[in-house]
Design a protein that fits this description.
Helices cover 42% and strands 17% of the residues. By secondary structure, it is α/β, with parallel strands linked by helices. The chain has one domain: Rossmann fold, CATH 3.40.50.150. Belongs to the methyltransferase superfamily. L-isoaspartyl/D-aspartyl protein methyltransferase family.
């Protein structure tokens, strides 16, 4: 049996084939562009992170290898708003909303090193903030318990920290610690009280270490 096909049908069929080829080509080009963009961003932030460690942290005397390796690894830019991502590795604190900041990278490194971590500790953090400090700790220690009094910041950081399986978060006043999970081997306070909260002292193990900035606003604050 011979089937007749009109000329316009052939043209129509050819047009469809051309459209399909063009569409597939466009999809391929879009995919390649997305891959290139993602690769560029990964490389860019990796370079910024390494520069942060080299010029802000080790250059200022931080020597703990666990701290150094962790701060090369944790993506600090994921803990700030989109418009601040390219500034995430700058040598300064950045706004995270509600009048709060993500600490300067060196301060995070200094406080973490001051905890003298071996890797088996249960750590309580007072003042989750952006969640960055908790993420850094989670890469080094066994368990991290972090408390944030500001509900907005708690909800925001909790979304990011949910991917860290050894981090537990809570929205309550950190002055009173987290008695349910006490005692803790280490306690780190990122906010600056004008005195050392007694509930935190009571929730620290006998051989434990607490690190916190102490001093009234406007004064030079000292790490203890």
């Amino acid at each position: 049996m011979v089937k007749k096909i009109k000329k316009n049908q052939i043209i129509f069929t050819a047009t469809i084939l051309i459209m399909i080829v063009v569409s597939l080509t466009n999809i391929s080009l879009i995919s390649c562009k997305n891959i290139e963009k993602n690769t560029y961003e990964i490389d860019k932030y990796t370079e910024l992170r390494n520069n942060m460690v080299d010029y802000q942290i080790t250059a200022r005397g931080i020597t703990d290898k666990k701290v150094i390796e962790t701060m090369r690894k944790v993506p600090r830019h994921e803990f700030v708003d989109q418009y601040l991502k390219d500034s995430a590795y700058a040598d300064r604190p950045l706004s995270i909303g509600m009048g709060q900041t993500i600490s300067q990278p060196y301060i995070v490194a200094l406080m973490t090193e001051s905890l003298e971590l071996t890797g088996n500790e249960r750590v309580l953090e007072i003042g989750t903030g952006s969640g960055y400090q908790a993420a850094v700790l989670s890469e080094i220690v066994k368990e991290v318990y972090t408390v944030e009094i500001i509900t907005y910041l708690h909800q925001k950081s909790n979304k990011i920290l949910s991917s860290y399986s050894n981090v537990a978060t809570s929205n309550h006043d950190g002055y009173y610690g987290w008695e349910e999970y006490a005692p803790f081997d280490r306690i780190i306070v990122t906010a600056a009280p004008d005195h050392i909260p007694q509930p935190l002292v009571e929730q620290l193990t006998d051989e434990g270490i607490m690190v916190l900035p102490v001093g009234p606003p406007g004064w030079n604050q000292v790490l203890w």
